[in-house]
Design a protein that fits this description.
Length: about 600
């Protein structure tokens, strides 16, 4: 829904949006105000210059009058006086204009910097549900392109949007003071020009709004191709993806050209009216000079003021265009800033996790409020502290969904999840997540050294602790083979290490937290069964009091767990030891038999 529609319904208005985004100005309020003051002074001096010029021209044209007696020295002194005044005004106008430009640039860049920070902090506070609502490409566009346009809009607001109306007002006032009998020329031309600019704006704004709506799609296409470049190259789909991108890019180009063509008409329209006004001023001014009602200097000043009036109108129209173009950006940033995290701390949060026990009490969950089907249905489960629990099931059986509720990445739709005997919704979120270490299904490493990545688990970890964690995770061997060992650089996303190496580093990172609960979500899928067994053995001896939950596709990864859960369609269909499930669970039997055929996975 657009801002305009929401405004009509009384939901949110431009004032509310400006008020919220205006909070990001903060320490740049003074710079913004000073910019406006300096622009006002620059405009004032600029409008006084034609007036002084008219006085000089009148004095010079009156020299041949019989009642004027002036010698050469007096004439030179008068010219120098006027010249000094004009020079001083020009210097003042230039100085104030330069100061306004410098300060307004500082204010607009500072405002955009604060707004980016506020937006980033807001996104950082989102739950998984909030993140699901906004696509990654959309959030990136809002953080970059949208805020860039808002920055440009703010720059125009504190500079041109202040200068243009002031210039218009000062010039109209001075024109009326200089030649009130000719003010009717502007009274006719200004409304006509304003209507012309208004028509261009009304036609151009919807075009630019459509362009901004396509930005997300274009960025999403780029992100998808960059992330999946290996798949694209594997299936030799480069040409197909290029055509898809070029089509989206060409659509944007055509819309931009269409909009820019409309806006390009503003300049010839302005020039046309400027020359029309000059024609009328010279035409009617000539008769008035001959009749003695006005002087030549006044005509000269009137022409200058006419040009200033018309140019200020054009600048004002450009401001309106820029603001209108930025409306979509303002709305999109506003949407993120007002989004309320679905998960937040209670008023008096619990700041300590007693132990690693976990209880699911009649838990049901669905990702969206109005979704027809539950992802989890009436789950009841009790896990004792220090117990090792395996979870196995087919794709889409909601294994990951189940463990996401423990760290409170999502809140239950029905029922409750308790950790240490306390509902997870009563904990301080940071405290809960510091005590629950999770190796996600999609392993992520960040740019930096191996040591820096591992210290995400424990910023104060010693070198010895890091080495020990890698030994448990079976990562020490390949790390030691690198030239710089633990100081070796990891590229963004961990693209310079294999999938199995990435998994082992992520497991080591989780071990460094020394958590009360360790969740491994299919985190050994890229390692061989022997290494997998060594990792499980290391965890058993190094973290004996930690509750361990292992989600896996391979039976061998969970068969020595204290209890194994078999999940299907969002429900726990069976639970028990490996031997018990081989006797009682058809799903477990099928998985085991398939993986233990000759040539099957072990």
């Amino acid at each position: 829904m657009t801002i305009a529609k929401e405004t009509k319904k009384g939901r949110v208005g431009y004032w509310q949006i400006a008020k919220l985004l205006g909070k990001s100005v903060r320490e740049y309020k003074l710079s913004s105000i000073l910019s406006i003051v300096f622009i006002a002074l620059e405009t004032l001096f600029e409008c006084l210059i034609p007036y002084v010029m008219s006085l000089l021209i009148n004095d010079l044209t009156n020299l041949d009058r019989p009642d004027v007696v002036i010698n050469e020295e007096q004439l030179m002194a008068r010219v120098l006086t006027y010249g000094g005044i004009l020079l001083a005004m020009a210097i003042c106008s230039f100085a104030f204009g330069m100061a306004a430009g410098k300060i307004s640039a500082k204010a607009s860049v500072g405002f955009a910097t604060n707004l980016r920070k506020d937006l980033f902090y807001k996104v950082s506070s989102f739950s998984f549900h909030n993140i699901d609502k906004f696509s990654v490409s959309s959030l990136v566009t809002r953080q970059t392109t949208d805020i860039t346009y808002i920055q440009m809009c703010y720059m125009m607001l504190i500079r041109i949007a202040m200068r243009s109306p002031l210039m218009l007002i000062f010039s109209v006032v001075m024109a009326c003071v200089m030649a009130p009998s000719m003010a009717w020329i502007y009274a006719i031309l200004i409304p006509i020009l304003a209507v012309g600019f208004g028509v261009l704006i009304v036609k151009a704004v919807p075009i630019f709004n459509r362009v901004f709506d396509k930005y997300d799609e274009l960025n999403e296409s780029v992100e998808e191709n960059v992330r999946g470049i290996r798949v694209v190259k594997t299936y030799t789909r480069e040409e197909f993806e290029k055509k898809k991108f070029f089509k989206a890019s060409d659509d944007m180009e055509k819309q931009f050209i269409k909009g820019e063509r409309l806006l390009a008409l503003s300049n010839p329209l302005l020039v046309f009216f400027m020359y029309i006004s000059m024609l009328f001023i010279i035409w009617f001014g000539t008769y008035m000079v001959l009749d003695g009602r006005v002087e030549i200097g006044q005509i000269s000043a009137l022409i200058t003021y006419g040009a200033q009036i018309l140019s200020s109108l054009m600048m004002l129209s450009m401001v309106f265009v820029m603001i209108s173009m930025s409306t979509a950006c303002l709305r999109r940033v506003y949407e993120v800033l007002v989004e309320k995290p679905t998960i937040a701390n209670p008023e008096n949060p619990v700041m300590d996790v007693p132990d690693g026990s976990i209880v699911f009490d009649h838990v049901s969950f669905k990702y969206r409020k109005h979704a027809e089907k539950f992802a989890l249905s009436d789950v009841n489960l009790t896990i004792r502290p220090g117990e090792t629990v395996g979870i196995i099931g087919g794709t889409g059986s909601s294994k990951s969904t189940l463990v996401n509720l423990i760290s409170r990445f999502y809140d239950t739709t029905e029922g409750s999840v308790k950790v240490g005997g306390i509902d997870v919704r009563e904990y301080d979120i940071r405290t809960l997540r510091e005590n629950v270490s999770m190796v996600l299904q999609k392993n992520v490493l960040f740019s930096g050294t191996i040591k820096e990545n591992l210290r995400w688990g424990n910023p104060k970890a010693t070198d010895e602790q890091i080495v020990e964690a890698c030994r448990i995770a079976q990562a020490d061997t390949f790390v030691e083979s690198f030239p710089k060992k633990y100081d070796s650089e990891i590229l963004q996303g961990g693209t310079n290490v294999s999938g199995g190496q990435k998994q082992r580093l992520c497991i080591a990172r989780a071990i460094l937290k020394n958590p009360k609960i360790l969740i491994m979500d299919d985190s050994t899928s890229a390692v061989d069964t022997k290494t997998d067994a060594f990792i499980r053995e290391g965890l058993r001896h190094s973290l004996p009091g930690t509750t361990k939950i292992i989600i896996a596709q391979r039976v061998s990864s969970v068969q020595d767990a204290d209890v194994i859960l078999v999940m299907d369609d969002g429900r726990i269909t069976n639970m028990g030891t490996h031997e018990e499930l081989l006797r009682s669970s058809p799903i477990y039997q099928e998985i085991y038999n398939l993986q233990n055929r000759v040539g099957g996975a072990q």
